[in-house]
Amino acid sequence: MQQHTVAASIAQTGVGLHSGVNTHVRILPAEVGSGRYFVRVDLPDAPIIPAQVAAVSQTVLSTQLGKGEVSVRTVEHLLAALVGMGVDNARIEIDGAELPLLDGSARIWTESIAAVGLLSQPTNDSPLSPVIKEPIWIYEGDTFVAAIPAPETRFSYGIDFDLPAIGNQWHSWLLSAASFAAEIAPARTFGLLHQLEYLQKSGLIKGGSLENALVCGPDGWLNPPLRFANEPVRHKILDLVGDLSLVGNIPQAHFLAYKASHNLHIQLAQRILDLGR
Ligand SMILES: [Zn+2]
């Protein structure tokens, strides 16, 4: 068996979407079997927060991990980049409570990982990956996320918005590192113009801007061009990959979602983990 870590360290700096606070991140090689984990290097004793479902502390508009009073927010795009590029073990040092949004996608993380390359880590431990033998469904109203037994790992996602520039979009993608970098990682965060004021009044999206998120209004996109005609739904796949990475090894399955949220994604991740008990 082989696991992988980054072959050299990666550094990025930027503003967090919700906090508006600038943070510095370093991704460092980590020992075989250690998994992906965050280290709050700005706090006394540098507390560690594992990137695991059990550490999820909040799922409103982004995924937050925490342990006690210590947390790290908006982890999903970096985690998607790591799992999408095949990085099993990584020490992620951060000097604040929210990951930088960068350009709103996972492209910069993915390119940084590709630039340093991966280090193979031989191990005798086989991965503890639950097997999906029967469909798992999580739904709320008409929104759902599911894992279906399948011969390969595929993600299919649908969204539906009243705004004509988004409308009803579906995308289906077969998991592979090469296609992740090209097809999913570049898809950016998107927001709806009519919700921005409410979110800002609620103390959210303080770091959001037309540079790091696509914004859609009744007359179309405020900041075109899009990177893909269906960039929003591809971004939802990116979020789902990042959230499911909290299982550890994403099991082989067809993951299917419609109008889902971080909350539903995490509920599915928990149900998958429960299979292994
Ligand atoms: Zn996202």
Automatic annotation (TrEMBL):
UniProt catalytic activity: a UDP-3-O-[(3R)-3-hydroxyacyl]-N-acetyl-alpha-D-glucosamine + H2O = a UDP-3-O-[(3R)-3-hydroxyacyl]-alpha-D-glucosamine + acetate
Active site annotated at which positions? 262 (proton donor)
Q: Which residues bind Zn(2+)?
A: 77, 235, 239
Q: Which domain of life is it from?
A: Bacteria
> What's a single GO MF annotation on this record?
UDP-3-O-acyl-N-acetylglucosamine deacetylase activity
Keywords associated with the record? Hydrolase, Lipid A biosynthesis, Lipid biosynthesis, Lipid metabolism, Metal-binding, Zinc
Q: Does the keyword Zinc apply?
A: yes
Broadest EC class assigned to this enzyme: hydrolase
Give the EC number(s) listed in the UniProt record: 3.5.1.108
Identify the cofactor(s): Zn(2+)
Q: What pathway does the annotation place this protein in? A: Glycolipid biosynthesis; lipid IV(A) biosynthesis; lipid IV(A) from (3R)-3-hydroxytetradecanoyl-[acyl-carrier-protein] and UDP-N-acetyl-alpha-D-glucosamine: step 2/6
Its annotated function is as follows: Catalyzes the hydrolysis of UDP-3-O-myristoyl-N-acetylglucosamine to form UDP-3-O-myristoylglucosamine and acetate, the committed step in lipid A biosynthesis.
Supply the HAMAP family for this chain. LpxC
Record-stated family: Belongs to the LpxC family.
Q: Which NCBIfam families match?
A: lpxC
The protein, known as: UDP-3-O-acyl-N-acetylglucosamine deacetylase
